[in-house]
Model the fold of this input.
Amino acid sequence: MTEPTGRRERKKAQTRRSLADAALQLFMDRGYDQVGVKDVADAADVSVTTLFKHFPSKEALVFDLEEDLEARLVAAVHDRPHGRSIPHALREHILLTRTRLGVDAADPRFAAFTRMVRDTPALREYAHRMWTRHEAALAKAIAAEVGAPDDDVACAALARFALESRTLIQRHDDPRHAADAVFAVLTEGWNALHPEG
Done:
């Protein structure tokens, strides 16, 4: 997330961070379904109205970094190292984002956080919707990289399947192995159409 510069923006960012931190702590301590938005607002010492000014839903409290997802997806394509294929860049990005949604992998709560998301249908569905809503922007970025029209179906297919692969990769016991298998299939198909990208 871009660092806020003005006093008002910093205060808003601080309130948002306080809400997200309070929510995560409560969810981890009590369980997601046992915590209401009022509990989170009280823990952060704000009103429920203020909470909803910063987060549109209870699920959004879990995924504080949502607003940066699209920019990072597009950057994974545009800013990839010279010589790295688009599928390879997306594979690496998807593996990296496993650590960026809510809790960093180095945090001792990461396993519990991942389990909470996986075991809570509302969170699982929200995470999937949050991720896949950026399909059009990713497809457009891919098309720009290979000089294809914005509505190129192959670029749209790669964007969709790469985004959808995240679910398969995350629920596998060995995510790196799963990513290798999924992206081997995607890369072969992509290379048949765009060997240069």
Notes: The CA atoms of residues 72 and 129 lie 16 Å apart. The longest helix spans residues 7-30.
